[in-house]
Every structure is written in structure tokens, then in C-alpha cells.
Please model this.
Amino acid sequence: MPDSLFGCRPFIVVKEVVRLEDYVIVTNNPLVEEREGKTHTVELYDVGIEEILRLIRDRVHSGQRLLTHPLSGSVKPGETPYKSVLMTRGKEPFDLMSVELIQSAIEACGKFSFKRDEYDERAMRDFRIIDWTLIKSALESADSF
Amino acid sequence: MSKIKVVHYINQFFANIGGEEKADYPAEKRPGEVVGPGMAFNAAFGDEAEIIGTIVCGDTYFNENVDKATADILEMVKEMQPDLFIAGPAFNAGRYGVACGTIASAVQEKLGIPSLTGMYIENPGVDMFASKVYMVSTKNSAAGMRDAVKKMAPLALKLAKGEPIGASCEEGYIPNGVRVNFFEKERGSKRAVEMLLKKLAGKEYTTEYPMPAFDRVAPNPPIKDLSKATIALVTSGGIVPKGNPDHIESSSASKFGEYDITGVTDLTADTYETAHGGYDPVYANADADRVLPVDVMRDLEKEGVIGKLHNKYYATVGNGTAVASAKAYAAEIAKRLIADGVDAVILTST
Amino acid sequence: MKLEMGYIHISDIEFSSESKIENGKLYVSTDALKALVLEDEKLKDVSFDIARPGESVRITPVKDVIEPRVKVEGKGGVFPGIISKVDTVGSGKTYALKGMAVVTAGKIVGFQEGVIDMTGPGADYTPFSKLINLVMVCEPVDEIEPHEYEKAVRIAGFKAAAYIGELAKSLTPDETKVYETETIKEGMAKYPDLPRVAYVHMLQSQGLLHDTYVYGVDAKQILPTMLNPTECMDGAIVSGNCVSACDKNPTYVHQNNPVVHDLLEEHGKTINFVCHIVTNENVYLADKQRSSDWTAKLCKMLDLDGVIVSQEGFGNPDTDLIMNCKKIEAEGIKTVIITDEYAGRDGKSQSLADADAAADAVVTAGNANQVVVLPKLDKVIGTLDYITKIAGASENTLREDGSLEVEIQVITGATNEVGFTTLSAR
Model:
């Protein structure tokens, strides 16, 4: 996956979903789109971890509120290449907590080094699974009503 | 093994030259001499190290001639070729503390010689230099000399030998922002229980991780009707009229400027520039609106989004400017803005 | 509630044709244990090994560490809701085998971490180097999903620990300790002048491989609730957590929760230890708000004077920790929090992902990013395949002389956030 700051192109854009929702999943993890895309709005970006966090930050700055913690999971941000978050779909009054959470998540990235070359496909698959299960735990909460 | 060679820096008072009336005493090198507190250090070093020379400088002289004094003293230290440099301890003497911090960090940074100083936690030198050079926490007066030397001497030897330096609480230095692991005597849960018992009893306790300092300002209520509001621009990004008429310094600014922008709709390369020395000025100089968005504010004014843009803006340089100075400038700027009936301010930095 | 803990000191472990404990020595029939573990059709094979303190042995990747215990008298059995019925535990009599543990290992995910060195500098950082460890390396069947494998290994560990604990049921303990706490009303009458204190215990609950179970309930589905301090000693709380070796709480730590034990030590002397409150660390922000509101509410309803809050994990839980602390302090209840730090290798970065001025009494378990060099050891139980890739290891993790350069976050229990060890930082 390209880690370039400018190579950000959504390769699958917003999907029309079966039911009305008030949130979207923003992710760079293709497995999330694969498993949740049929029932949820998934916006998948083919970018690295820092870039997906920055993308999320830009949305926070423009009024979308975070519904999940961007540092979800004990797999550190510099170690897993994948990250998914839930955000409100519509714009809301500026949410300071979201700003702080995403900002500290981006800062935390700098503390860890991701050794992409050393991970085999199995590890990458497991990273995708872990990221998916983390967001799935949030979907269970979000969808309980 | 030969002894570690130490050069010691002290002020006019500890060199027995005199008090405040002699504080303008210029920097002086005394090779081979061990003066005042140096004797206590020599005794504490035992066979491991010895002071090979002392540098004396008056506190007023140092602080009023920082650049020259620093350069002169660096030269003196260089000539004596020590393995270790010790400044002070300065206890609660403010200007002495600043001198010790300045020179100890300069010797370490410029000459690559391990350096150590010591002072009282409330000495202004602590805020300025604790993150730059190891600084032992001392009592607030020279009555604590023995205690200070007892902590400084072993740490100094470790520094000179290049040994790993333990956590601040083990070595006695003032926390410098670098977190260092060590093994406590009691496990964490026990320490938590003990801390809670103290907190419950209203006794003093020390947190093991001080939260980052917060200086939060409660936000004012929002502007009810932006279309009637007067908005001012204030920046720490150093945007000044071309030529920097007030000579605002490129770092550690000692002032702020007030500039009239009546009729100005766009800041151009011919009319405005940045005085800031802490970032690449090319883009700010090409179009200063990038830092101080006068152009966009004029648009909003024209579109009726805001009532009007205040006809004066305020600028200083945030680069290395002391928080205390910044606070003082802000207080004065706020006073003027309120007097002029400004409703809101947009603060821009770099 | 009153629980009598009987401690049986184990001086050595040996494989044998018959499982028994004699004169402090544990004999284990690997055949019997294997048959028990392989009852689970998700597991293909299991191998056993013994690692003793001081031996040149490295165990990795470690999943869980469990202390064998057995219920001798009183309601319920160990690990209620998981391998015993869900009866409320924490009263009567329980025996624990001290000085040893069952360690489960297995490469559940491709970036698995968790190292226990039995000697050398690594041993200083893990509390489990001081135990005689019976290690089980579990092999899954082919084509298994990580979460199925995790569950199989998790249950296998509890079954093995319960099996071994059972061997002690008819023995006489070497040492006995009685833990007793009162009901709310009794406590108030008995200790009218002592400050009322509780323990707010945050449980990792972010999703698969990040879960904790309370009486068999996935903690992310609980609302904050109260336990008697003795319940955890019977295995009421167990770990399903595979990630973040340094600051996850293995089941052993839940059984021997140091905050619970140290508060019980002071109970009736300097404090009235009212109860053990468990809460979670969910990913969904509304859950965080609800749970922290509820812990603060419970603390207020219990008229507490002081609280210790402990954390599990990094990042996401920092937010729960600060929310809990802030809200409990806002109720006028004094708090002390226990955490660890990720201050970067140079120790210069911001240690926590969240902060608040209300958190003015912090105990830290040290900087997990600190680098340590672990020498090559003679024997590896498990596999080194993953350590070169795991969290905290650098590009040149595996050095030419066979030593490993890693951050201490790969070491099991190194920066435990319930204060199980003495590591700290300033």
C-alpha cells in the first residue's frame, strides 16, 4: 500500500446502503468494506495509516463527529497498517473531543515504527481481521437500537 | 587512571568579590584555582576528579552581555580543556541561575563537554534550561550547599564517565522532560494505596507522572450576530509592514507592533513581510495573507458575513518568546482591542 | 464476605505417568492433560514444557498465565461462568498453588508478542520469570480463524489450571490467609471513622483478542458493576486478551490482583475497602461516556471518599482512564490512577494519549518504549518466528550474536497497569 501523503484516492466510494444510517465507516482496511459494506456505509481509502488518520482529521475539522476512538486496539498505530473509525454522516457543531482524539492519535503514530517489510501476508491478514473485529465491536454498540 | 578534569563556574558573590555592588564584574579565568564551593566539590570528588580552574563572572555583567559573556567563557573553558563543566549551584539567585543555565548548556552544546548545574526549583533558570542541561534540585539558599554538593558530585562523575543516568528521583536532578525507567522498592499497587492514603489525609504526595501543564482559557460565549461584529486580526507569525518599522526581533521578541490597515485589502510582497526567524519566510513574504488573512477578511466584510475588520492589527514573533512576555503583550493588546470596541479576534500563528 | 485462601507452595514440576502433588512437588501426566486439552476439536496438538527460574529459557509468544486454584469449600467453582457454573464465588475456602503457573503459548495472530525470559535482563522485567512455568504450546487445526483459535487456547489454559488445581484439593496448605469484607451497612457501623475506598478496575474490552470476561460475560457488554473483593481470587475475571503483552492483565494478575490485595491489607486499619468495581474500555465513544458516568455514579452512591483506578492497555483506554478520573474527582472523591507510558524510545514524547488536570495523583508502571537487549538464550519454548516482527521490535531486532533488541512492551507484564511490578519512570 502506498504510504504517500498525496497518493490518496478513494477507490471505492460511498455505497448506497440498505437501511438509513446516521454514521459512516471510514477505513483503509479492505476487509471492513468486504464484511460490512453490504449493511453499512463504508468509505474505503487506499492509503497508509497516517494518511487515513489525517483524512479523518480533515473530516472532524469540517464537522463530522467521531463515534469511535481512533486509537482503538492495543496494536499500536505505527504497528498496524489499518484503521477504521465510525463517524457521524452529517455535519454537526464542531466537536472538541473529536479534535483532541484524532490529533493525539496522529501524534501517537510518531512513537511507533511500522516495519511493513517484515510482515508476511498472514500477519497483514491478521491485522485486517483485528481492525475489523475492533470496529465490529463498535458496530454492535452503534446498532443495538 | 588520571583524574577527571573539572572547570567550575561561579558568580562574584561565591568568589568572595562582593555582592550586588560587584555584580558587573566581567568574566575572568582563574586556571589552577579552586574557589569557594569548588573546595566542597573537590572534597566530594575524592580521587576521581579535580577542579583544574575556575571561571568567575558577575551576574549583572553576564545577563547584560549574554552573547559576549557566553562567547568569552566558552573560549576560557576551551583553553582549559576539562572533561566536565560545573556551574553553580545557584540556589534561588535568579540571575545567577540564568547565567549557570546559559553557560552550562552552551558548554555542553558547543564544546561537547558534559555539564551540570544546580538550583532551587523556583529559580527562573529552571524553566529556561532544565530540558537542556542536567540540573540538580537544591535548597533555596547557600545554607543548602553541602546537600547540593552531595547530590551534584556523584551525578557529575557519572556524566563525565558517560555512564547511564537514572531517573530524576534517583539522581536528584530536576525532571527534564525525558522519562527514564527504574525499579521502585514497592510495587505499583502498594504505591497507589500509599498515595491515596496521603491524598485522603490531605498530606503532601508526589505524583509519578505530572500531567502536561494546562493553561486553558475558558472560551467566551459565541458572537450572536457575526454580521454586526468587529473582528480583529492578531498574529504571532511576525507579519509586519515591509521594512519592519518597529524592529520586532526575529526571535525572543521584546515587543509587539500595532499597524493600521485602513483601506488595505490585500497584503502583497511589496507592502508586507514576516519578521519571524523560526520558519521558512518565502511563502509568508510572497503573500503575507497566508499568515494574516486580511484578504479573506475583506471578502467576508464585503459579503456581509462579518460587520467589519478592525482597522488595526497586532503582531509579534512567537519564536522563542518567553511565555511571560507573550502573556504581557496579550494583556496590553486585549486592553486596546476592548477600548476600540472589538467584538472578536482571530489569532493566527505559523 | 469471607474467603479463606490456602497457599500450597510448589517447589518443582516434573512430568510423570500420574498427576499428583507430593511434598510440594507437582507431578503432571502429560497424557492426561493432553487428552483434556484436545477435547476441543479446534486444537490439533499440544506440547508441554517446564521452565524454571534462572534457566536459560525464553517462552514466546505467550498468550496467558494462569495460577492453578481449586475451590475447597463454599459456593461455586473456579472460573465461574467459564468452566464452572455461574454461582457467585469469593466465599468459603480456596487453595492456590503458589510459585508456579500454567502458561499458554501459541501464534494466534501473525504479529503475536509476549516474551517471558527465565534469566537475564528480560527476566527482571517480567514477574513470571520468578515462577516455575508449565508451558502449553497449542496447535490449532488448519484453516482456523484467529478468534476461534484464541478461544480454544484460552479455554485450554483454564481447563489445565483447574485440572492441576484439583490435585491440591485434599492437601493441607502451607499457609492460610483469611480475607473478609463487610456489607455496606456493616462496614459503616464497624468502621465509622475510616475513609471509604473502592477500586475501579478497567477491563480491556475492545473486541476480539482484546477482551476480558466477568463470570463468562464479555466485559464490553457490561455496565459498571460491583464485586466483593474476594471474587476475583476464584477466577471471576479472566483474560481473553492477546495483544499488548506489557500492559495486558493475564488471568494470573486478575486472580492475584495487587490493588485488591493491597487494599485488603489496609482494610479495617486505615481504610474501609467497600468494594471492587469493574468497568470496561470500549471502542464506541458513547459506551465510554456511559461507563464512566456509571462508575462515577456508583462511587457517589457508595459515599466513597477515595478510589484507585487502574487501566489496561494503551491509547483508547487512556481516554476511559481520564474520563473515569475526571468524573469521580468531580463527585468530590479523591482518586489515584495507575497507568503506564508510551514516551517513545528517547522518553521525550507525550506519555499518554489523553490528560487532564484532575489526574493529579498518578502511579506509573514505566515507559513501554524503553529498549532492552535480550541475550540469546539456550532454549526457546514456542517460536522465535514472530519476535522479529512483533510490536516494539526494531528493524534490527535480531542481532548478529543472536540477541534481540526490543522495546519492553513485548515482555509479558513489563509495565502492568494494576501495579503488579515495581517498574516505574520519572
Summary: Chain B has a mean pLDDT of 93. Chains B and A do not touch (no CB pair under 8 Å).
